UniProtKB/TrEMBL annotation:
It comes from Allonocardiopsis opalescens. Pfam families: adh_short_C2. Belongs to the short-chain dehydrogenases/reductases (SDR) family. The keyword NAD does not apply. Keywords: Oxidoreductase. This is 3-oxoacyl-[acyl-carrier protein] reductase. InterPro entries: NAD(P)-bd_dom_sf, SDR, SDR_fam. Gene3D superfamilies: NAD(P)-binding Rossmann-like Domain (3.40.50.720). GO terms for molecular function: oxidoreductase activity. The keyword Oxidoreductase applies.
Length: 248
């Protein structure tokens, strides 16, 4: 079950945290993984770790907001892995300027960053891989999102939340277009992760029913399911992975 042998995956933003956990989990189930990150050294470190553990991985550093760079990176991944990308996990979502703060205080020049990486980054990556998936009659697209897409807060997340809301809508519509071709598209909306809490881990964890924050391994396991052959009837959905902090 959940065997991904013979499949090739591209994971964006995979040089650290949840992205690294996703790349490792997919490789552990047999997928050959193209590890993307904006920082080449991070992509190389995660790729090297997978290879050292007996998996197959290659580093492909590029900026997801640059369509030409995305296309070049996907072509490089295909050449090095020996097949087209079957599984796309768009995890990259935090720009250099996160755009955090009360909206009234944010200059218009700061509005675009979260939207470029989350929404247009996803569109760039999907555009670069989706034709091969449809022609093959099999593909998996997994978008990493956040509870901030559907739950308002007063923590200065209006730009980030808007960007994640937008990409969730994109994935829902995309799923309907691609379903007849054997390609699924789903979103995994994450709750607070260990890397985001800093010194306040225990404080935040106490507010979550499971009494802990999410880990890269939690995220990787959920993505493995969505990427698997067994998830062929799961498409167009947003699944919450948040320790029960928000229920639906």
């Amino acid at each position: 079950m959940f065997d991904l042998s013979g499949r090739a995956a591209l994971v964006t933003g995979a040089g650290q945290n949840a992205g690294a956990g996703i790349a490792r989990a997919l490789a552990a189930r047999g997928a050959a993984v193209a590890v993307n990150d904006l920082v080449p050294e991070r992509a190389e470190a995660v790729s090297g770790g997978i290879t050292a553990s007996g998996g197959t991985a290659v580093p492909v550093a590029f900026d997801v907001t640059d369509l030409d760079a995305v296309r070049e990176g996907v072509a490089r991944a295909r050449a090095e892995l020996g097949r087209h990308v079957d599984i796309l996990v768009h995890n990259a979502g935090i720009p250099a300027d996160f755009g955090q703060g009360p909206f009234r205080t944010l200059a218009p020049g700061r509005w675009r960053g979260p939207v470029e990486i989350n929404l247009f980054g996803a569109m760039n990556c999907v555009s670069a891989v989706v034709d091969d998936m449809c022609e093959a009659g099999w593909g998996r697209i997994v978008q990493i999102s956040s509870g901030a897409a559907r739950t308002g807060s007063d923590q200065g997340l209006s730009l980030y939340g808007a960007a994640k809301s937008g990409v969730e809508g994109f994935i829902r519509h995309l799923s309907q277009e691609l379903a007849p071709s054997g390609v699924t598209a789903n979103t995994l909306a994450l709750g607070l992760q260990t890397n985001a809490a800093g010194d306040a881990t225990e404080v935040f964890a106490a507010k979550i029913p499971t009494r802990r924050l999410g880990t890269p391994e939690d995220v990787g396991a959920a993505v493995v399911y969505l990427a698997s052959p067994e998830a062929s009837w799961m498409t167009g959905q947003t699944l919450n992975l948040n320790g029960g902090s928000v229920t639906t």
